[in-house]
Amino acid sequence: MIRSVLWILLCLSAMGPFVKHCFVFGDVVTCSDIVPMRHRNDVISIKDFGGISDGSTLNTQAFREAIYRIKHLKRRGGTLLYIPPGVYLTESFSLTSHMTLYLAKGAVIRATQQNTWSWPLIAPLPSYGRGRELPGWRYRSLIHGDGVHDVIITGGENGTIDGQGAMWWNMWRQKTLKFTRPNLIEFMNSKNIIISNVMFLNSPFWNIHPVYCSNVVIRYVTILAPADSPNTDGIDPDSSSNVCIEDSYISTGDDLVAVKSGWDEYGIAYGRKSSGITIRRISGSSPFAGIAIGSEVSGGVENVLAEHIGLFNMGIGIHIKSNIGRGGFIKNITVSDVYIENAVKGIRMTGAAGDHPDDKFNPNALTVVKGITFRNIWGVKVQQPGSIQGLSNSPFTGICLSNINLYGVPGSQTSPLWKCSDVSGAARLVNPSPCAELASTYGSGSCMTSF
């Protein structure tokens, strides 16, 4: 735990808020080798296709023609599309397989803020049954990939993808949206994807959304949006497997990282889980959660590791959430070596969070939550240490707390307490003392291997 705190302090003192290369002392543990970085010998520039970097000329056609060339004039080993310094305004465009989108230092791909008619509409995800915000279709992401593989988005320091989301946020606030807002980047039905060394700004909706994907690496990214920007989740792996998220800084208006797998009856029917998710060396701030699972977990979430996390000015540090009607499962989750500073709540687990796509959900479809380990968590200025509240017909089991210290706000007149119901497990070295449902069972049962 001391080593983890030293890591955080070193990173913050050395780099300020833009933490991109922060490692634990000693050997660097990484999962990024699940997708090797590929060198491309064939290189083309967006300027070869008429790209203009004045920040006002629309470059949609240039991007589409360049990617058409990559797709149809196949080169052995694929092709790198080079984006030189400058600001390239564009509408939505789609990537193809065997390509690298490389943003030079000072290069900005910026979404147009023209009327929404210029944004293509695509079908709702089958595991959601409708757009996430509104019934019907949804706007396609600024940068999109469907059924692609061997794709890299990377660049020089401060290469930026700017969603110019203010227009979309205002429509959401004014309730004038006709369809669900676009993500900044979405990969669907894709594999062997790398996103690294790029800054993402002001996404209209979720920032990076790999859905129905496998073998995805997201590393060395910075994701920024105002704290009041609605639903600007940082990274949302969704019904995906073998996802590595490391060494990044995220400050947005919603969850920093949220693992999902479908929504109510649609996610249950689609039945694709998220599994093999590693989240490591992530820092950031948000009025919502740092590391979240759910609330859309209808396809199931299992085998998630989140470790060496630094969270500042948070709503909730770690949030595991589902709802009646979700079904699915959340199991074999480990969260360790976390530092939380200034948060409303340190840890929250609940079976009553999130909304529904419609009224057709099955109220008897309850999420099974078991095998959840929290260890080596240190927090200061945490107003309430935690709440773990399962459902009477689906208690949370195997909830293991170890070496957790969550200190309250100095000068507060009340002592923060844990709140628990319909939960079983065990606790060891937890301060303030956890609820009796956990404290009374230390030393036996499913938590023995977690301590």
From TrEMBL:
One GO-annotated biological process of the protein: carbohydrate metabolic process
Organism: Macleaya cordata (Five-seeded plume-poppy)
SMART domains assigned to the protein according to its UniProt record, in alphabetical order: PbH1
Domain of life: Eukaryota
Keyword check for Iron: no
Family: Belongs to the glycosyl hydrolase 28 family.
Signal sequence, renumbered to the chain: 1-21
Matches recorded under InterPro entries: GH28_Enzymes, Glyco_hydro_28, PbH1, Pectin_lyas_fold, Pectin_lyase_fold/virulence
Keywords: Glycosidase, Hydrolase, Signal
Residue ranges crossing the lipid bilayer per the database entry: none
Protein name: Glycoside hydrolase
GO molecular function term, any single one: polygalacturonase activity
